[in-house]
Write a structure and sequence with these properties.
Blueprint lengths: L2 E6 L15 H16 L4 E6 L10 H7 L8 H19 L2 E5 L9 H10 L6 E3 L8 E3 L7 E7 L18 H11 L3 E7 L7 H22 L3 H6 L1
Flavin mononucleotide binds next to helix 1.
């Protein structure tokens, strides 16, 4: 069975098209999951809302605990790391990660940054050893063949690669760097633009994003590793 981890990061609680002032990124992530369930109704869906319930930012105690070897950890260290451990467990279970992540001030929202800081964990998602030949760090999730789709929303337009605002977009590039560091390199991005204009360009962008999501679901749902094993 495939496990899909659905993450939302918008501070806006509702979905556009359904709720007043609703979130486009939540609309897109819900669309992906709904389409997925149509094609693969038996799959398991995990849900994490870091927009409404942001993880705690990492603290000095968290860093001390995370960089203490597990066998040397004191009870308070396990307590401090409990939330991070739960987020890592969930990520490890996921085959497909569907992340609705809007652009806030050219980067990811604070709740999603806190999520990232909690899942980049030495000894769990990346390895680190100063005595190692070459680089002292390595990704730990590479062999798990996870896939990630980033479903973003922006007020302005022109943030796609090669476009006029691309150099200011620190959402997808940041997410690709971080998840690539952990060994998740199969990353796809789909975004809605023109939210702040609210005109027909927004509607066209939403329609295009939903079409792209439907196509991606069909492509991924048919081409999972378990299907290749079954074939
Ligand atoms: C705090 C904040 C910062 C924002 N910063 C940017 C920005 O840097 N660039 C941009 O194009 N839009 C920006 N926007 C607009 C949002 O990206 C846009 O409203 C998007 O639709 C929000 O995602 P959501 O619809 O999923 O809530 C910002 C919105 C907020 C609330």
């Amino acid at each position: 069975m495939t496990t899909l981890l659905h993450i939302d990061a918008s501070a806006r609680p509702g979905r556009s098209g359904i709720d007043p002032h609703g979130s486009h990124s939540r609309r897109l992530s819900a669309r992906f999951v709904e389409q997925w369930q149509k094609v693969r109704p038996g799959d398991r869906i995990l849900y994490r809302d870091v927009g409404q319930h942001p993880p705690h930012p990492v603290s000095g105690e968290w860093i001390h605990a995370a960089f203490t070897k597990p066998e040397a950890r004191e009870p308070w260290m396990h307590d401090v790391l409990a939330e991070s451990d739960a987020l890592v467990d969930e990520l490890l279970e996921a085959d497909v990660i569907v992340a609705g992540v809007p652009m806030y001030n050219f980067g990811v929202p604070a709740g999603f940054k806190a999520y990232i800081d909690n899942i980049v964990r030495v000894g769990r998602t990346f390895g680190f050893d100063r005595s190692r030949q070459g680089l002292p760090y390595w990704p730990m999730l590479t062999e798990m063949h996870k896939r990630l789709v980033v479903l973003s929303a922006r007020g302005d337009y022109g943030y796609a690669p090669g476009e006029r605002m691309a150099h200011t977009n620190h959402v997808e590039p940041h997410i690709c760097t971080v998840f690539g560091y952990l060994g998740i390199d199969d990353v796809h991005g789909i975004a809605v633009e023109y939210d702040e204009f609210g005109d027909e360009r927004l509607q066209a962008s939403l329609a295009q994003a939903e079409q792209d999501i439907d196509a991606l679901v069909m492509a991924w749902a048919k081409n999972l590793k378990e299907d290749l094993v079954d074939a």
